[in-house]
Amino acid sequence: MPKRMEGVFQMSNEKYNDICKKYSVDSLVIFPMVESVTAVYGGPINFLGNVLPSSERDGCFFLSENATFLSRADNSLFLFQYKKGQERTSIVGCGICESHGEKAHPDEGIVQKYYRFVPETIKVFDNSISLKELQSVSPDIKLSRAQYVDFKYKSAICSLIDTRLNISKSFSKNINIALAPKHIETMGDETYYTCGNCEFRFKKAPRCPECGQLVLEQDLKG
User: Fold this and answer.
1) Contact in structure between 99 and 74 (CB atoms under 8 Å)
2) Same domain (yes/no): 201, 137
3) DSSP three-state, residue 159
């Protein structure tokens, strides 16, 4: 998330390995997401990018009844695995789990097990990470079920994540000069922008929550 300094936004552009250190990550998990669960929220990208980190959900990922529940999940870097139809299974995002438990689902009212992820650590990849790329780090990795990955590969996997987060990308130096969104998308009653500066997707707001870029005022009307 952007940090405020003297009334202006300063872009936070941390490498994911540094984020893991900040939250004392000590294990790696590959976690399959069920298509029937994410489909309710418009698919995995919208679910991870907008629903899961929202103030209503507060990072809580509720599990389906038959999902594998990993009791040793706290302080873990989760790689979100997804497969739709005949598409190849891949990693579409990541996040750091800080706690787990059971409570009522906010939409369904049924008590379910959940993992709670730190919202600002939840990242969605524009281009997913393939099994081939993961196996270049560790040949033992398989994309089939919830599993732990040897922690010695953390730095290498974080480097893979960084390639999907455009860490080295050049951004606008003056985020207070308004830019029009690169894309505008309406879903139901909500409008989402893709930042014209860093290409982060976010719910309509005066500034991008990722890099602090001011949004062109005319695009906020309506």
Assistant:
1) yes
2) no
3) helix
Rounded Cα distance between 111 and 10, Å, is 40
How many Å apart are CA 7 and CA 4, to the nearest integer? 6
Quick check: helix, strand or coil at residue 31? strand
Q: Which helix (H) or strand (E) holds 113?
A: strand 111-117
Q: How many helices (H) and strands (E) does the chain have?
A: 5, 12
CB atoms within 10 A of CB 94: 29
Residue 169 lies in a domain: no
Note whether 164 and 126 are within 8 A (CB). yes
Q: Which residues pair with 95 in a beta bridge?
A: 78
pTM of the model: 0.69
pLDDT per residue of the chain (222 residues) written in tens, 0 to 9: 333 333 333 334 688 999 999 999 999 999 998 776 677 787 888 889 889 999 889 999 998 877 778 888 999 999 999 987 667 889 999 999 999 999 988 888 889 999 999 999 999 987 899 999 999 999 989 888 889 999 999 999 999 999 888 654 444 456 777 888 888 888 888 898 888 877 788 889 998 887 778 888 765 655
Q: For residues 1 and 140, what is the distance between their CA atoms, to the nearest angstrom? A: 34
By residue count, the chain amounts to: 222
Q: How many domains does the chain have?
A: 2
Same domain for 127 and 40: yes
Question: Is 207 in the same domain as 105?
Answer: no
Domain range holding 202? 183-220
